[in-house]
Amino acid sequence: MAGHSKFKNIMHRKGAQDKKRAKLFSRLIREISVSAKIGSPDPDSNPRLRSAINNALSSNMTKESIDKAIKKQTSTDDKDLIEEIIYEGFGPNGVAIIVETMTDNKNRSAAEVRSTFSKYNGNLGVSGCVKHNFKRVGVISYDKSVSTFEDFFDYCASEDVEDVTENESDFVLETNLDNFNTILQKLENKFSIPKFSEIEWKPLNFIDVSDEDSARVLIKLLETLEDLDDVQTVSSNFNINDSLMDKII
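RE: above sequence
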C-alpha cells in the first residue's frame, strides 16, 4: 500500500474512533450545509450532499441534526455564512498538499494554515500551484463484511467502476465524477449505506520521502493541518514505504 493511502486509512480510523467528538460532528455539519448551499438540497440530485449525509449517518449523527444542517443553507444570518476555501502548498521534499477548509472567518483560516506550513518546513503557495498534480475522483468504502471481495469486485466491474481494491478492513472503489452519484445509489441498494464516501483529490504523481526525519516532519504537518478546526480534508502526493510509515506513526 502506498504511504499516502496508508496515512489516509489511519486518519479515517482515527476519525471513526472519535465519532463522538464535537469536532468531527462540526466538520460533518459544515460539509452538509455547504454541499446543500452550492448545489441542490436534494441528495438524489446532489452527489456531494449524498456523500456528506451518508458519512454523517455512518458516524451516528441523527436525522434531525442532518435535516437542520441542510435547512441552515437558506439562512441569511451572517453567523451562518460559511465560505469554502482551498489552500495549496508544499511540504518537506516538495510534497504537494491541498487543504480544503470551510470557515466563517477566512482571515483566521489563512493565518492558521500558513502558520502550520511554516512551522513544519512547508510553504503555502498560490492558487493552482499544485492542483495539476491531482485529479478529482469519487471514492466509496465498504466494510469487508458486506461481501466477498470476488463478488464485490464483479458487481463493481459490471457498473463501470474505475478501480476496486481491498485493505485490511475495507473494500475501496474509485469512480469518475460523472457516474459517482449513480454508482453510489446502486451500491446503497445492493450493499446498504457505505462506510465512507466522498470526492477526493487523487495524486497523479508521487514524491518519494525516504529520509526518516523528513518523513516525521511531513506526517506531523499533515496531522496538524487535519486537526485545525476549519480544515475539512488534507490531500497530498507523498509516498513513504510501509516499514518507514509503521515506524513513524
